[in-house]
Write a structure and sequence with these properties.
The chain is α/β, with parallel strands linked by helices. Helices cover 38% and strands 16% of the residues.
C-alpha cells in the first residue's frame, strides 16, 4: 500500500501550503483506496471513502475507470458498501461525465436486470459525452429491438439532457470588484511564471491577482451572501493578451459555482466585465465555463455641441462616467430583459453577452455540453428516423444577396458544417466549422490533457488534417517542474495522435521550436482554419484563432469549432518603405496610423485582412502575429500566387525535416500535409484555384491604408509605465518614434527572439556585429543581449550560411541541448547569450529580466510583470522594437539616436517590403 502512504505524505506537505488533498487521477492509488474501503476495520477507511466519493477526477483518467467499475459492482450487488447505496452509486456515475462511466452505464442499461436497466437509462439520459463506440452500442441495441435503447434514443432525440435542466435565473445579483484600472492582461489572473501549476487548480488559484485581492473578494462574498462577485477591468478591456483557460478557472474558483459536489476545485459560471468589454479570445474561454462577460460601457467620450469628442492636452478623448461600478456596488443582471440594472435604474444593454447561444452555454454549464449535445441529438434522430426537434437556438444565418465575400467569409463558407444548403453566409452568422490544424502548447497542454480526459476523448478526430504538441514554453529551463510535467504531457498527446515536439521513446531529438512557427509551416492551405492553445496562433496562411485549452481539446476531439463569422477590417499599403526601415516598423506604424485615423481601435474583436501580397509567410508572420496585441480576433494574409507558392515550398521542406527526424506517426500525418501542399501548389499553378482573395464588392467594417512614406524612423511600442492615467499604461497603443527618446533612455537588457523574429532577423544581428566591428574594431556590450532563434531550422541554415559563427564569436553563453539549463538565470553579464529555440523571456514563466529593468525586445509582450517585474526602485518596462534597434540598444546600453541607428544598419538587408502593384481581389 505504498501509493496511499505516498499520497498521505503529499497531503501533509500540501497542508503546509494551505492546500487540500490533490484530486486523484491515478487508478492504482484508487485501487488501494477501494481495498481500504472494503476492510471495515481499516484505520484509513473513513478517509478512503471521502477520497473515493469526493476527490477522484472524472472522465478518462485511470482513476475514473477504477471508480466506475467499483460503482458497477455496488449496483450489481457484487460489492457492498454501507455508505454507498446502489442509488448513490448511480448518482456518482452521473457526475463522471463520460468514458468509463458511460461504458458502465451502457453495460447496465443494456443488461438483463430491468430495474437496474431503467435506473441506468435514467442517468444516461442526462449524459452528453458519448463517442462513436458508445453511440454504436446504442444504435446496435436499438436495431436488435432493445426497448431501453429505444427509450434512451427517444430522450436524446428530444434533447431532454438539455430541456430538463433548470432555466437560467431571470435576475443575477452581482457585487462589483474592480480588479484593476485599464486593460487587464490574463497574466493578472494567471501569471505566466506560475504556468507549471495550472493543472493543480487549487494551487494555481492562489496566484490570482494578489493575496490582498483574494481577501477582498472573500470579504465581499461574506458581506453579500447569495450574490456573485463580478471582476471588472475599469476603463479597460478584460482578458487581453491570451485566452488563458487557467485565468478563467481562477476567476471561477474564487467567484463561480462548483460544477459538481463530487469533483473538487472545478468551478464554473464566472462573471467578468470591462468598460470596453472582454477580449475576444478570452470571451470564448468564459463561454467554455458557462460564464458571462459584460461590455459595461460605463465610461463614454465627452462630446462638444457638434457631437465631436473633446480632447485633452495629449489629444486623447476626455471620458466621463456614465455610471459607477466601484468595488462593493450591487448591480443586477436581468437575463430576460438583457439589461444591467442598479436597483430600478437601467444602466446599459447587455444583449451581446446574452445571445440565445450564450444563454444555452450558461444553462448547460458550459459550451462543451452544447456542442456534444447537438451532436448527440442529431445522431439519435437519425438513428430513429425521426425529424430532429427544434430545441436549441437556431444558428444565426446572415446572407446579403449580391454582396461579395471577405477572405474570412470565404474560408468560413468553405468549412461550414450543418448550414442551409446553397446559402452564402456573411459576417455575424453563427457557424460550426471544420478545423484543419490544431496546436497545443506545453504550459496549457496539461490543462488540455485534463479537458480531453474530462470529455472522455481518446483520439484525435479523423477530420483534423494535423495536430501538434509543442515544447517551446518550457524550453528555456529544463527544471524539475518541466521534467515532471512535460514527458507526461508528450506521452499523452503522442498516444492521442498528435505530432509531439518530444518523442516519448526518445528516438528523435527534442524540438523546442516556437509553436506558432511550427503551425505556420503545418498550415499548407490558405483556406484552412487553425485553432491553437496560444493567443499568437495567428498564421500568415489560413485564418487562425488563439484559444483556451478547452477549445483546443474540443477541436482535437470533434474536429470542429463554433463561432460567429467576424467582421473584417481591410488593411492595404501605399508608398515606399525607406531602406533603413525594417518591416517591424511597418507593423507598429499600422497601429499608430490606425488610431490616428479612427480615434479608437477598429481592429478590436475583428479580423484584420492584411494585403501584404509580396512577403513570404515567414516575414508576413511578423504582422499577423502582432495582431493579437492589436486586440484583433484574428488576421488573414492575402498573398500573390507566386508568393504563396514560395511559402508552401518552404513549409514542405520544413515538414520534410520533421519527417526525416522521425516525427511522423503511424497515420503519416506529416506526409499527408506535404501531399496537400503539393496539391495546393498544383491548383495555383494551373489556375484551377488561385490564391485566396476577397471579392471586389466585399463589405468591411472599415478600410485602412498604411502610408509607408510616413515611416521615416524606427517605431517603438512603449508600455508608458508612468502615464498619469493608469488605464493608458501597458497597452500596445503608445507607439513612439525613436527620436522621442533623444538617444538617452537607459536600457538594461536586450532580447531578440520569440515568435516575432524570423531567419532574417538573426542574420541582421550577425550583419550588425560585422558592421560595428568594421567601424569600431571590436563590439562591446553595455547591456546583456539575449538571442533566441524561434526554430532549430533557422539555426541550421545560419550555420550553413556562416552567420552562426559571428553570433558565437560574441556570445558568452551558447545553449547545449545535451546539458540544458536546469535553473533560471537570475543575473546577466554585459554580453550576448545564445539561448535555446523557444519563447524564452517573452513567456515570463522561466527566464526573466531583473526586477525594475528597462528591456528593449522584439517580443510581443509589454504587460506588467511579464518580461520584467517592478522593483522597489523603479517600474520594470518592456519596450518593443525591431531587431536592429534592440541590438544597438544593448551595445550602447541606451536607445540609439537616429544617426547612430542609420550608421549601424547601413548596407544591411533589413526585412524589406514593397506593397503589391495592383489590388488583390476577385
Amino acid at each position: 500500500m505504498n501509493l496511499y502512504t505516498d499520497y498521505i505524505n503529499e497531503i501533509e506537505e500540501r497542508k503546509n501550503q494551505g492546500l487540500h488533498p490533490k484530486p486523484i487521477d491515478d487508478g492504482a492509488l484508487l485501487a488501494e483506496i477501494i481495498e481500504q474501503i472494503k476492510d471495515l476495520g481499516h484505520e484509513h477507511r473513513e478517509d478512503s471513502l471521502k477520497f473515493f466519493i469526493y476527490n477522484t477526477l472524472p472522465g478518462t483518467t485511470s482513476a475514473a475507470g477504477v471508480k466506475a467499475q467499483f460503482l458497477k459492482q455496488i449496483i450489481l450487488g457484487e460489492a457492498v458498501v454501507a455508505e454507498i447505496s446502489p442509488e448513490f452509486a448511480f448518482e456518482l456515475l452521473s457526475h463522471m461525465k463520460g468514458g468509463p462511466s458511460v461504458e458502465v452505464l451502457l453495460d447496465l442499461a443494456l443488461g438483463n436486470d430491468e430495474a437496474i436497466a431503467k435506473s441506468a437509462a435514467d442517468v444516461l439520459k442526462t449524459q452528453v459525452f458519448l463517442y462513436d463506440a458508445d453511440s454504436d452500442r446504442l444504435a446496435d441495441a436499438y436495431k436488435a429491438g432493445n426497448a431501453v435503447a429505444k427509450d434512451i434514443l427517444e430522450s436524446y432525440a428530444k434533447a431532454e439532457f438539455f430541456t430538463k435542466l433548470p432555466d437560467v435565473e431571470e435576475e443575477i445579483d452581482v457585487v462589483c470588484y474592480i480588479a484593476a484600472e485599464g486593460d487587464i492582461s490574463t497574466d493578472l489572473l494567471s501569471p505566466g511564471n506560475q504556468a507549471h501549476s495550472r493543472s493543480d487548480r487549487e494551487l494555481h488559484g492562489k496566484c490570482m491577482i494578489s493575496e490582498a485581492a483574494q481577501n477582498e473578494i472573500r470579504e465581499l462574498q461574506a458581506k453579500h451572501p447569495g450574490k456573485r462577485v463580478m471582476l471588472i477591468a475599469e476603463k479597460g478591456t478584460m482578458g487581453v493578451g491570451s485566452s488563458r483557460m487557467s485565468g478563467v478557472n481562477n476567476v471561477a474558483l474564487w467567484t463561480g459555482k462548483q460544477a459538481s459536489p463530487y469533483v473538487p476545485f472545478v468551478n464554473i459560471a464566472p462573471i467578468v466585465a470591462g468598460t470596453n468589454g472582454i477580449s475576444p479570445i478570452f470571451l470564448t474561454t468564459v463561454g467554455v465555463t458557462g460564464g458571462i462577460g459584460l461590455d459595461l460601457k460605463n465610461w463614454k467620450k465627452k462630446l462638444d455641441e457638434n457631437g465631436n469628442p473633446i480632447l485633452d492636452d495629449n489629444d486623447d478623448p476626455v471620458l466621463e462616467q456614465a455610471y459607477s461600478v466601484a468595488t462593493g456596488t450591487v448591480l443586477t443582471i436581468n437575463t430576460k430583459k438583457k439589461k444591467l440594472f442598479n436597483g430600478d435604474q437601467e444602466l446599459t444593454d447587455i444583449s451581446s453577452a446574452l445571445t440565445p447561444q450564450k444563454v444555452e452555454f450558461i444553462k448547460a454549464g458550459g459550451s462543451y455540453a452544447i456542442v456534444f449535445g447537438k451532436k448527440l441529438q442529431t445522431f439519435a434522430a437519425k438513428t430513429l428516423g425521426v425529424e430532429q426537434a427544434p430545441v436549441f437556438a437556431p444558428s444565426k444565418e446572415i446572407s446579403h444577396p449580391g454582396q461579395g465575400l471577405t477572405a474570412v467569409e470565404k474560408i468560413f463558407n468553405k468549412n461550414a458544417v450543418g448550414v442551409t444548403d446553397g446559402l452564402t453566409l456573411h459576417a455575424g452568422s453563427d457557424v460550426r466549422v471544420k478545423v484543419n490544424i490544431v496546436g497545443s502548447q506545453d504550459t496549457t497542454g496539461l490543462m488540455t490533457m485534463q479537458e480531453l480526459e474530462a470529455m472522455a476523448a481518446t483520439v484525435v478526430s479523423p477530420t483534423v488534417d494535423g495536430a501538434y504538441q509543442s515544447g517551446c514554453h518550457t524550453a528555456s529551463v529544463w527544471d524539475k517542474k518541466a521534467q515532471a510535467n512535460i514527458p507526461r504531457l508528450m506521452q499523452f498527446m503522442n498516444n492521442f495522435g498528435l505530432i509531439t515536439a518530444r518523442d516519448p521513446k526518445g528516438v528523435y531529438h527534442a524540438m523546442t521550436d516556437v509553436i506558432h512557427k511550427v503551425l505556420n509551416d503545418l498550415t499548407v492551405d490558405e483556406w484552412a482554419i487553425i485553432i491553437g492553445g496560444d493567443s499568437h496562433t495567428r498564421m500568415s496562411k489560413g485564418v487562425a484563432f488563439g484559444a483556451d485549452s478547452g477549445t483546443v481539446a474540443l477541436a482535437l476531439a470533434t474536429g470542429e469549432a463554433t463561432m460567429p463569422i467576424p467582421e473584417s477590417v481591410k488593411v492595404t499599403f501605399k508608398g515606399d518603405l525607406k531602406d533603413h526601415m525594417d518591416f517591424r516598423d511597418v507593423v507598429h506604424a499600422t497601429q499608430a496610423q490606425m488610431l490616428q485615423k479612427f480615434g479608437e481601435n477598429v481592429f478590436q474583436g475583428r479580423i484584420i485582412e492584411v494585403h501584404i501580397g509580396t512577403l513570404p509567410a515567414d516575414q508576413a508572420f511578423t504582422f499577423t502575429d502582432w495582431t493579437a496585441e492589436m486586440k484583433a480576433k484574428a488576421s488573414i494574409c492575402i498573398s500573390q500566387d507566386e508568393t504563396l507558392i514560395e511559402s508552401l515550398e518552404i513549409a514542405k521542406s520544413r515538414i520534410q525535416i520533421m519527417i526525416d527526424k522521425g516525427m511522423d506517426n503511424d497515420a503519416q500525418v506529416l506526409q499527408g500535409l506535404i501531399d496537400k501542399a503539393n496539391n495546393r501548389i498544383s491548383e495555383i499553378r494551373t489556375g484551377v484555384k488561385p490564391a485566396l482573395t476577397p471579392d471586389a464588392n466585399a463589405k468591411y467594417f472599415a478600410e485602412f491604408v498604411v502610408d509607408l512614406d510616413q515611416i521615416v524612423e524606427p517605431m517603438i511600442a512603449d508600455p508608458d509605465v508612468n502615464n498619469e492615467d493608469v488605464s493608458k499604461r501597458y497597452t500596445h497603443d503608445t507607439i513612439r518614434a525613436l527620436s522621442y527618446y533623444e538617444g538617452a533612455k537607459h536600457v538594461d537588457l536586450g532580447f531578440v527572439g520569440s515568435c516575432m523574429v524570423h531567419k532574417g532577423d538573426l542574420k541582421i544581428v550577425s550583419q550588425m556585429l560585422k558592421n560595428l566591428e568594421a567601424q569600431q574594431g571590436k563590439v562591446e556590450f553595455q547591456a546583456p543581449l539575449v538571442v533566441a532563434a524561434p526554430t532549430y531550422n533557422i539555426i541550421d541554415e545560419l550555420k550553413e550560411e556562416g552567420d552562426w559563427d559571428m553570433l558565437q564569436k560574441y556570445s558568452g553563453f551558447v545553449f547545449n541541448d545535451d546539458a540544458p539549463k536546469n535553473a533560471a538565470r537570475t543575473e546577466y553579464e554585459n554580453m550576448m547569450y545564445l539561448e535555446r529555440p523557444g519563447c524564452n523571456l517573452c513567456m515570463g514563466n522561466q527566464e526573466k529580466a531583473a526586477k525594475g529593468d528597462t528591456v528593449m525586445a522584439t517580443s510581443t509582450r509589454l504587460f506588467q510583470g511579464r518580461v520584467v517585474e517592478d522593483s522597489e526602485r523603479k517600474k520594470g518596462e518592456s519596450l518593443l522594437a525591431s531587431t536592429p534597434v534592440v541590438v544597438l540598444s544593448a551595445i550602447l546600453g541606451r536607445t540609439p539616436n537616429f544617426e547612430e541607428y542609420k550608421a549601424a544598419v547601413e548596407g544591411i538587408n533589413l526585412t524589406k517590403f514593397a506593397p503589391p502593384m495592383s489590388a488583390m481581389s476577385s
